[in-house]
Specification:
The protein has about 100 residues and is α/β, with parallel strands linked by helices. The chain is about 30% helix and about 20% strand. It has helices at about 10-15, 30-35, 70-80, 95, and strands spanning about 5, 25, 40-45, 60-65, 85-90. A five-stranded parallel sheet has the order 1-5-4-2-3. The termini are far apart. About 25% of the residues are buried.
């Protein structure tokens, strides 16, 4: 498994609150996303990531989100193995985000 960075929900919120323009990709399924997403996130279900690589910046930080951090971690590992420079996994996913 390739190495990738992680970010906590607290760190992410602080950066968004500071007005940073972050690239967020939510890899959950449609019915999960319907219950709410982090503002500004793009929805690319995990199963569609291989077909939609052209929508994901290769050389910029991209933060991946799922329910608990497992699927987004899979996405980060996959992209890192393909040479994407800065995939970042949201630790604890939306479960952690909703605790803030």
């Amino acid at each position: 498994m390739s190495e990738y960075a992680t970010i906590t929900a607290e760190q992410l919120k602080a950066r968004l609150d500071a007005g940073e323009k972050l690239r967020l990709i939510d890899v959950r399924e449609d019915e999960e996303v319907a219950q709410g997403m982090i503002p500004g996130a793009i929805h690319i279900p995990l199963g569609q990531v291989p077909q939609r690589l052209d929508e994901i910046p290769r050389d910029e930080e991209v933060i991946f989100v799922c329910r608990s951090g497992y699927r987004s971690g899979q996405a980060c590992g996959y992209l890192a193995s393909l040479g994407f420079k800065q995939p970042v996994n949201l630790e604890g996913g939306m479960l952690a985000w909703q605790q803030l």
